[in-house]
Amino acid sequence: MLKLSRSDSSNPDFQALVRLLDAYLAKIDGEETHFYSQYNKIDSLKHVVVLYENDIPKACGAIKEIDSQRMEVKRMYTAEDSRGKGFGSTVLSDLEKWAAEMGYKACVLETGKRQPDAIALYEKSGYQLIPNYGQYIGVENSVCFEKKLS
């Protein structure tokens, strides 16, 4: 049975999944991990979604405000043994719904070019490629996306 839980970054299941995410990204990004980690602190995220399968945390994501109109999708992760089940899409959809419920007009995000599965998820979910924003301007490995919310 699947269950979604909305929480904040104090959720221990979210924290455990993020540790797995950080280890995964360290393998992919190597030395560049240090650059990205400064922008991926989770100590004050107010909007976190954790997906549970049979009460076991399997996927997560978060959103944080960029400005009065946009939320940024952060810390998306699905446990390696649970990929291919649509859990990432389910979490992302709930994050978008939550952002829309709060009156935001769009979600933006950054991901790495070395993460084709993540890029495929965002494109499949209706995200459009945009110029890199903020701290990602000029970063060769970064690619940024946006989706307008209804």
From TrEMBL:
SUPFAM superfamilies named among the record's database cross-references: Acyl-CoA N-acyltransferases (Nat) (SSF55729)
Keyword terms, alphabetized: Acyltransferase, Transferase
Span of domain N-acetyltransferase: 2-150
Signal peptide residues on this chain, from the entry's feature table: none
InterPro entries per UniProt: Acyl_CoA_acyltransferase, Bact_Acetyltransf, GNAT_dom
Short name of any one Pfam family annotated for the protein: Acetyltransf_1
PANTHER family (alphabetical): AMINOALKYLPHOSPHONATE N-ACETYLTRANSFERASE-RELATED, AMINOALKYLPHOSPHONATE N-ACETYLTRANSFERASE-RELATED-RELATED
Protein name: GNAT family N-acetyltransferase
Organism: Algoriphagus pacificus
